[in-house]
Specification:
single chain; alpha+beta; 9 strands; 23% helix; 31% strand; globular
Length: 201
């Protein structure tokens, strides 16, 4: 009987430890968003990332951008202000990929955004309130044969919301640290720029 009680205690401890580890890996899905870009810096039209501040906080929020290439390497990071009920539109080619750390020309990759109550992609404070929509372009001539006769370079726009993603404290720290290295080592390179809120493409 004593042995059975010890086995039950060990089993319960194992379950609790596994649950604790799982809980530590679950983050906030209301402050972190991911999307992708394709056909950047090619003959395709420029893609756009649009961000809305829903105004729930009543104040300005910052979109901390982390722009990766298709090899998962961080190319640029920056923090752009979005006022309450405001709209921010960022050009992928002209703002998010125009100042890479190494001068590499990127064509595809991932854009991650943290909604923050403080400025600074290397020291943000996650806060909900931003909503992100991405507009990308694909060459329709590869998928719709009938349009070949209309134009040699005919593209279709694809609009999709960014995915609500899981931001753990370790992921946040990693993004901030790598971005901090980019800012320090780049001497001005590796930092993306922000468009005025009232400017759209």
């Amino acid at each position: 009987m004593k042995k059975l009680g010890i086995v039950r205690c060990l089993a319960l401890a194992t379950i609790l430890l596994a649950g604790s580890a799982l809980a530590q890996s679950v983050g906030d899905r209301s402050v972190y968003f991911t999307t992708y870009y394709t056909n950047a810096n090619t003959g395709a039209p420029d893609s756009t990332v649009r961000i809305v501040n829903d105004g729930d906080t009543g104040g300005t929020l910052w979109a901390s951008f982390y722009v990766f290439d298709d090899s998962q390497e961080l190319q640029e990071c920056c923090s752009c202000a979005v006022s309450a009920d405001g709209l921010l539109s960022e050009s992928v080619n002209k703002e998010l990929l125009a100042n890479t750390l190494t001068g590499k020309v990127n064509h595809a990759g991932v854009i991650a955004v943290i909604s923050s109550s403080t400025k600074g992609p290397d020291s943000n404070t996650p806060a909900p309130g931003l909503h992100i929509l991405s507009v990308s372009w694909g060459a329709s001539e590869n998928t719709i044969p009938d349009v070949k006769s209309l134009a040699a370079n005919y593209y279709l726009a694809f609009e999709h919301p960014a995915a609500d993603s899981n931001l753990t404290s370790s992921q946040q720290s990693e993004l901030q640290n790598v971005c901090g290295f980019l800012i320090t080592l780049g001497s001005g390179h590796g930092v993306c720029s922000c468009t005025p809120e009232d400017h759209d493409f």
